[in-house]
Amino acid sequence: MAGRKIGRGVIAFLKYFSLVFFSFVAVLPIVSCVITAFKTDEEYGSTNVMTLPKSWFNFDNFVQAFQKANMGKAFVNSFIILVCVLAISTLIGTQLAYVLNRFKFRGNELIKNLFLFATLLPGVAMQVSVFGIMTNLHLIDSLIGYIILMCGTDVISIYIYIQFFENIDKSLDESAIVDGAGYFTIFYKILLPLLKPAIVTSCILKGVGTYNEYYNANLYLQDKKLYPTVATSLYTFVGPLGSQYNLICAGVIISLIPALIVFITCQKQIYSGLTSGSVKG
Q1: CB of 199 closer than 8 Å to CB of 118
Q2: DSSP H or E stretch at residue 16
Q3: Strand pairing partners for 242?
Q4: Phi-psi bin for 256: left (phi > 0), alpha (psi -120 to 50), beta?
Q5: Alpha-carbon radius of gyration of the chain
Q6: Helix (H) or strand (E) holding 242
Q7: Where are the alpha helices (DSSP H) in 103-170?
Q8: Long-range CB contacts (within 8 A, 24+) of 240-245
Q9: For residue 2, is pLDDT > 70?
């Protein structure tokens, strides 16, 4: 009995120690970023990253980061991109999942398998052909072209929608058809409102990826003065002669504020959407 108690105690200690340790590892970069954001250039150059700044009311770094990185325009561009991408991706993804789940036709399974195969292809390996297509269509340095590129089919979201459709009884469709409803009416008025948890889940995944996207934004929106995004604007302070990390950290905190506001205001919907959208199927 004593041996069992010791064993349980050791397991409990390791469990809580690992939770505390990994929580500390996750929080440490955020704390370091906040501390660095309030330091002057002299403080940053003469102290380590965890040394507290002399004043917590020094907001010069935030003002400089916002102005020099043109973050006002970057927020506007990112907002336009995010709204358009989420709206178009949700509309296309839900309709595609509806067709693949509700209509059985030759090649149905093949299309599903091709989507799965597409996830195995690294995106970087296809950039040469994608860049050639974007160049030929004159969509480089175009906000519309970048939005079209980011609206590319999100396979994970489609599978989330398909699994959610599988848990919606087909008798709803049949009853609506008996009452004279068409397929579009069934989809928009009956099925789409029931997909709200899955839509919230996929929008969170797609939205975070789009908001933080740097590689494609840097490659296809080459005019950084005209088309900055939140991700590319932070690289204003990175150069061959050195990086201004105190301004970068201030810009990072500024870029986190909109996401934090959205999370705090919609956390109930986000939590319910994530739990409902992920356990279906």
Answers
A1: no
A2: helix 2-37
A3: 239
A4: alpha
A5: 24
A6: strand 242-243
A7: 108-119, 127-136, 143-150, 155-166
A8: 244/41, 245/36, 245/44
A9: no
pLDDT higher than threshold 60 for residue 174: yes
Once rounded to an integer, what is the mean pLDDT over residues 265-269? 71
Q: List residues bridging with 239 in a β-sheet.
A: 242
DSSP state of 143: H
| The two structure tokens encoding residue 199 | 């839509």
DSSP 250: H
Q: How large is the average pLDDT for residues 231-243?
A: 76
Q: How many helices (H) and strands (E) does the chain have?
A: 16, 2
H or E stretch at 27? helix 2-37
- Give me the domains of the chain, ranges plus CATH numbers: 81-238+256-279 (1.10.3720.10)
pLDDT for residue 259 is more than 90: no
Q: Calculate the alpha carbon distances from 172 to 2, 82, 177, 204, 216 in Å.
A: 60, 33, 9, 28, 42
Distance (Å, whole) CA 227 – CA 213: 14
Q: Which two tokens stand for residue 264?
A: 């705090």
